[in-house]
C-alpha cells in the first residue's frame, strides 16, 4: 500500500511517501526564512507560501521518488489543528489529487501523527504514555492504540515550544528561537552554568496534569529587566556566528539563563509525565512505553532528562529521530497508512480544523471498491 502524506499546517510544506508502513521518500520546504524577518510565523504569508510551493514540490517529489498519482493507494493530509489558511492549501490539494486519481482521501490529526511517527522506524509498544511538545501544543495522552487517544493534560496557555520561542525573542536571538536557545543552554550546562533555582517550576505545585508556561515567561522577562546586560550579550552573539562553546564563554550570564530556563521547562514536563504514569498505574491501566514527539522533543536537555525518567519509570523511551520531531510529511503518510490499513478514509467533504477546535472522528469505512 503506497500512501502519500501532505503537511501544511504551519510553516513547513512537506511531503512523505510510505509503502506498507515504511518510509520510501520525503521532501520538506521550510518557510523559516520568510517568517524570520517578522520574528514569528505570519499566518497570511504562510498560506501564500504553501500555495506557491506545494505544486512544484509535488512535481519534483514525483520525479525523485519515481511514482505517478495512479500508483498511490491513498492520499493523507494534515487536516488540523493548525493555521486554517495553511491547512486549506494542503487539504484542497489532497482532495484534488484524490478525486483526480480516484483514490481514497484520509484527513490526519497532526498531533496524533507526531506521536505515531516513531512507528515508521520501530514497532510501537502500546498502550503508551505520550507527550506531544510542539510550538502550538503541550499535550499528555494515554495512547491505547493508534486509533484511540485519551487526552490527560494540556497547556492552559503557552505551549512549551512557544515559551522557548518567546524567551528567545525577548533575548533577540534569531528565529526560530527554540533551537538557538537549546544550543546556548547546552553550552551553559557543559560549563556548569545551570542554576536550578533561578526560576521556579511553573504550575507544578498541584495535583493535575496540565501545564502553564506563561508565568515562567514573565519571570524571565522580569529577570532580564533586572539584568539588561544579558540582552547585550545575546545581541553581540547574534551578530557573530560563534560556536556554542565560544558563545558560552563570551556570554556566561546568557548561557546560564538559557540552561536554567531550559531545565525549568524540561523538569516540569518530566514531572507531569511521571505523575501521569503514576495516575494510570493507580487506575489499573497498562503502560508499555513512553513516546515523546513534536518540535521540542528535539531539545537536548529534555531528551536526556526523558532518558533518566524512562529508567526511573522502567518504561522504554521512544523518541523520533530529529527530522521526524519537527513537522514532516512522513508522519502524515504513516498515520494515513494506518487509517487506510484499518479500512477507513474520509469523504471529499473533509473539513480543515483550526487550532482550538476538536478534531471530529468522522472517518468512514471503505467499501469493497476502496471508496469512502
Ligand atoms: O512540531 P513543530 O515543528 O511545529 C508545530 O507543530 O508547532 O514544533 C516547532 C516548535 C517551535 O516552537 C520550536 O522553537 C521548537 O519546536 N523547537 C525546539 C527545538 N527545536 C524546535 N525547542 C527547544 N529545543 C529545540 N532543540
Ligand atoms: Zn507539529
Secondary structure layout:
Blueprint: E1 2-7, E2 12-19, E3 22-30, H1 32-36, H2 43-65, E4 74-80, H3 84-101, E5 105-109, H4 110-116, E6 128-133, E7 138-145, E8 148-154, H5 160-171, H6 177-190, H7 214-226, H8 229-239, H9 244-250, H10 252-282, E9 289-293, H11 300-313, E10 317-318, H12 322-325, H13 329-341, E11 344-345, E12 364-365
Parallel strand pairs: 1-4, 4-5, 6-9, 9-10
Antiparallel strand pairs: 1-2, 2-3, 6-7, 7-8, 11-12
5'-O-[(R)-(carboxyoxy)(hydroxy)phosphoryl]adenosine binds next to helix 5 and helix 6.
User: What is the number of strand segments?
Assistant: 12
CATH superfamily grouping of the largest domain:
ATPase, nucleotide binding domain
| Strand neighbour order, sheet with most strands | 3-2-1-4-5
Low-pLDDT residue spans: none
Strand content: 15-25%
CATH architecture of the largest domain: 2-Layer Sandwich
Structural class by helix and strand composition: alpha/beta
Count helical runs.
Answer: 13
Mean pLDDT: 94
Number of domains: 2
Helix content: 40-55%
According to CATH, what is the class of the largest domain? Alpha Beta
Amino acid at each position: 500500500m503506497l500512501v502519500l502524506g501532505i503537511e501544511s499546517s504551519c510553516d513547513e510544506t512537506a511531503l512523505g511517501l510510505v509503502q506498507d508502513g515504511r518510509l520510501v521518500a520525503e521532501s520538506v520546504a521550510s518557510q523559516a526564512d520568510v517568517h524570520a524577518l517578522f520574528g514569528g510565523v505570519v499566518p497570511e504569508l504562510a498560506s501564500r507560501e504553501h500555495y506557491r510551493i506545494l505544486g512544484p514540490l509535488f512535481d519534483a517529489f514525483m520525479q525523485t521518488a519515481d511514482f505517478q498519482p495512479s500508483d498511490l493507494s491513498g492520499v493523507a493530509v494534515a487536516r488540523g489543528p493548525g493555521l486554517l489558511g495553511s491547512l486549506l492549501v494542503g487539504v484542497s490539494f489532497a482532495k484534488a489529487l484524490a478525486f483526480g486519481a480516484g483514490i481514497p482521501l484520509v484527513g490526519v490529526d497532526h498531533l496524533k501523527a507526531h506521536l505515531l511517527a516513531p512507528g515508521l522506524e520501530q514497532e510501537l509498544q502500546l498502550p503508551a504514555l505520550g507527550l506531544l511538545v510542539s510550538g502550538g501544543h503541550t499535550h499528555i495522552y494515554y495512547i491505547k492504540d493508534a486509533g484511540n487517544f485519551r487526552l490527560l493534560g494540556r497547556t492552559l496557555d503557552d505551549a512549551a515550544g512557544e515559551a522557548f520561542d518567546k524567551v528567545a525573542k525577548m533575548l533577540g536571538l534569531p528565529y526560530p528561537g527554540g533551537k538557538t536557545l537549546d544550543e546556548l543552554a547546552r553550552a551553559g550546562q557543559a560549563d556548569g552554568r545551570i542554576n536550578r533555582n533561578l526560576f521556579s517550576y511553573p504550575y507544578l505545585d498541584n495535583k493535575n496534569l496540565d501545564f502553564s508556561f506563561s508565568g515562567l515567561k514573565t519571570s524571565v522577562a522580569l529577570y532580564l529587566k533586572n539584568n539588561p546586560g544579558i540582552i547585550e550579550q545575546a545581541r553581540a552573539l547574534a551578530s557573530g556566528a560563534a560556536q556554542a562553546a565560544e558563545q558560552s564563554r563570551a556570554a556566561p550570564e546568557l548561557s546560564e539563563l538559557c540552561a536554567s530556563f531550559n531545565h525549568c521547562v524540561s523538569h516540569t514536563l518530566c514531572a507531569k509525565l511521571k505523575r501521569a504514569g503514576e495516575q494510570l498505574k493507580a487506575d489499573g491501566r497498562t503502560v508499555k512505553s513512553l513516546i515523546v514527539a513534536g518540535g521540542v522533543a528535539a531539545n537536548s536537555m529534555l531528551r536526556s532528562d526523558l532518558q533518566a525518567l524512562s529508567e526511573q519509570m522502567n518504561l522504554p523511551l521512544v523518541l523520533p529521530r530529529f527530522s521526524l520531531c519537527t513537522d514532516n510529511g512522513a508522519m502524515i503518510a504513516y498515520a494515513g497508512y494506518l487509517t487506510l490499513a484499518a479500512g477507513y478514509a474520509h469523504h471529499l467533504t473533509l473539513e480543515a480544523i483550526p487550532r482550538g477546535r476538536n478534531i471530529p472522528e468522522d472517518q468512514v469505512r471503505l467499501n469493497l471498491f476502496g471508496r469512502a
